[in-house]
Amino acid sequence: MKFHQKPWTYVELVELKVSDLEQSLKFYEEVIGFRVLDKQANKIWLTADGQTALLSIEQPDNVEPKLPKTTGLYHFALLLPSREDLGAVLRFFAENGIRIGAGDHLVSEALYLNDPDGNGIEIYSDRPDSGWKWDNEFVAMDTLAINAQDILAAGAGTEWKGLPSGTVMGHIHLQVVDIEEAKEFYELLGFEVVTPYPGALFMSTGKYHHHIGLNTWAGAGAKPATEEMTGLEAFNIIYPSIQERDSAITNLRKKNISVLEENDIFYTKDPSENKIKMIVK
Questions:
Q1: Which residues of 21-39 are buried (b: 16+ CB within 10 A; e: fewer)?
Q2: Domain definitions of the chain by residue range
Q3: Locate the VOC domain: which residues (predicted)?
Q4: CATH number listed for the domain at residues 2-280
């Protein structure tokens, strides 16, 4: 998982608002394979390794369903340590009748499903980056049918016991109002474009295939979700040093983009009102 540690900038904790906390917890434990790391009255932090929170779920007061054609989360993506792990989870889904989508993206192989509130989830494994095809600064990506039997065969000797401890938050994919506006914002945070795609854009640090995905598939000019709606509350961007985080903050403030600080955590919002916590780790 060399793209999800120093010296790179990457995504880690994704925070969700849900309509029924216990229903969501049951799903994330029994279907996705998370374990509880910490629990409060209306918020639960979930982990794969027993130490790092990758996802939190919270049931706000007066919560409302997210409306279609709004900005926010398209999906968050859990990166498994190996293709064998992907084969094990695919077998688990098949044996338990869990409906999924899937895609071969050339750089990775992925499974897709939704949580009870319709929040998108990707579970994937990367192909070795030595085999990724680059055309100057752009990496080749596509969406093709997976070879399910080959993936299942790879995982034949691996028992699925929930998310492996080496699982990380591979990327987050967001619905935004305007692609160009979003691109310019995330460039200020230190990310660079690695793949243009119809109606979408993928950005990363360290020449990963993407840490951030952006799309206007909900419709260009879509309205931001309200605070009361289920879906994305915030996500963490992890910087390798105070200097790199402060450089990103300076970039934002030069463009008159608000950055707030609370309890030593810096917050900002992208142009589509997606909330970001800027963390040094």
A1: beebbebbeebbbbeebee
A2: 2-280
A3: 10-126
A4: 3.10.180.10
Is this prediction's pTM over 0.70? yes
User: Which tokens in the block code for residue 46?
Assistant: 């979930």
Q: Given the structure tokens 């300076």, which residue do they identify? A: 250
Measured in residues, the chain has a length of 281
